[in-house]
Amino acid sequence: MAARAEGLTKAYGSGETRVVALDAVSVSVPHGEFVAIMGPSGSGKSTLMHCLAGLDTATGGQIWIGDNEITRLKDKKLTQLRRDRIGFIFQAFNLLPTLTALENITLPMDIAGRKADQAWVDKVIDTVGLAGRLKHRPTELSGGQQQRVACARALASRPDIIFADEPTGNLDSRAGAEILAFLRSSVDDLGQTIVMVTHDPVAASYADRVLFLADGRIVDELLEPSADSVLDRMRKFDGAGRRS
Ligand SMILES: Nc1ncnc2c1ncn2[C@@H]1O[C@H](COP(=O)(O)OP(=O)(O)OP(=O)(O)O)[C@@H](O)[C@H]1O
Ligand SMILES: [Mg+2]
Question: InterPro entries in the record, alphabetically (predicted)?
Answer without folding.
Answer: AAA+_ATPase (IPR003593), ABC_transporter-like_ATP-bd (IPR003439), ABC_transpr_LolD-like (IPR015854), MacB-like_ATP-bd (IPR017911), P-loop_NTPase (IPR027417)
